[in-house]
Amino acid sequence: MSEESPHVLDGAMPPARNPHLFGHKAAEDFLARSYRSGKGHHAILIEGPEGIGKATLAFRFANHVLSHPDPATAPEHLAAPDLDSAVSRQIASGASHNLLHLARPVDEKTGKAKTAITVDEVRRAGHFFSQTSGTGNWRIVIIDPADDLNRNAANAILKILEEPPRRALFLVLSHAPGKLLPTIRSRCQPLKLSPLGDDDLMQALGALGLRPDGGKTEETIRAMSKGSVARALKLMNYGGADIVAAFDEVMAADEPAARKNMHRLADVLSAKDSDVIFGFFLEHLGDHLMERARQAALTGNLQGAERQAKLVSDITEQITVAQAYNLDRKQTVLSILEAARA
User: Fold this and answer.
1) CA 253 to CA 208: how far, in whole Å?
2) How far is 91 from 314, CA to CA, in rounded Å?
3) Which of these, 188, 232, 235, 207, lies nearest to 58 by C-alpha position?
4) Does domain 15-192 have CATH number 3.40.50.300?
């Protein structure tokens, strides 16, 4: 992660300062028209896979609203923010009195982001609204992502969503909206974003100064990133492609070579500052197992499909327990790989 922000991947641009957005013109136009109509919803659930531009879209829309506080005179389309404007400078520096960005707080001791958005963070929203209640300005809260809300924080957000202050706007981001409280989802207008197409993905990477060198490298990035800039960055800047190759070797090898490969992979995933690549590995493993389940179902092997789906559930629970109790990561990885090979 970036030293400047523990929430931003190396090579990425903080969404609050990113003037580039690719592949979501329809969503941009919808937000602009909805706002201009004066009948827009007070809470919008922007959903889609991680790293496709949800946060950048949220900040762009927030900039649009704060730059044009009267909906009736607002432009019909969202434009790239003017980075030299007062509104943009305030948003980029986190100094806007009308915008609150709720994300996982940073642990002062480690400098890393904590594992959840806590109720204390949500209380900041209550304080934010009470401080600005008499200004008459729009007040915007970006929850990034709502998937990270713990139970108490989710319930606290729900209470605000049920009785929103006047001229309040919530932009609720989610990588997996099915995991949110149904009551939160029911109080938001859904806006689903799709993964980026190949051309948009390459343009987004180019805007970051990252250009795969063509040939097989570019082909691999296109295929393995699944339309996600975040996933592409993990492949390019964090050794994700090597992790996928090592995982494939583990799954294909016979004993005792498999055991040796498992330990080698577990060493990499349990090394210092390996949180990002460990998360990438877990995502890839989940995709791999779900694809096995899908293939089993397509061939009529419903028992096999059910077994693979249960394995995903069991591994997810094992990871949750390991993280909650800070268990040894290498042993956790070895246990997961053994289960996947069984």
Assistant:
1) 38
2) 42
3) 188
4) yes
List strands edge to edge, sheet with 139-143.
99-102, 139-143, 168-174, 43-47, 189-192
Mean pLDDT on 208-220: 78
Tokens of 118: 């806590």
Q: Structure tokens of 202?
A: 């390459």
DSSP assignments along 128-169, one per residue: HHHHTTTS---EEEEETTGGGB-HHHHHHHHHHHHSPPTTEE
Cis status of the peptide bond prior to 256, with omega within 30 of 0 = yes
DSSP helix/strand/coil, 232: helix
- Residue 51, CB-side half-sphere exposure with 13 Å CA sphere: 22
Q: Residue 113: pLDDT band by 50, 70, 90 thresholds?
A: confident
Q: What is the pLDDT of residue 119?
A: 95
What pLDDT digit, counting tens, does each position of 249-281 carry?
999 999 889 999 999 999 999 999 899 999 999
Write out 278-331 in H/E/C secondary structure.
Answer: HHHHHHHHHHHHHHHHHHHHHCCCHHHHHHHHHHHHHHHHHHHHHHHCCCCHHH
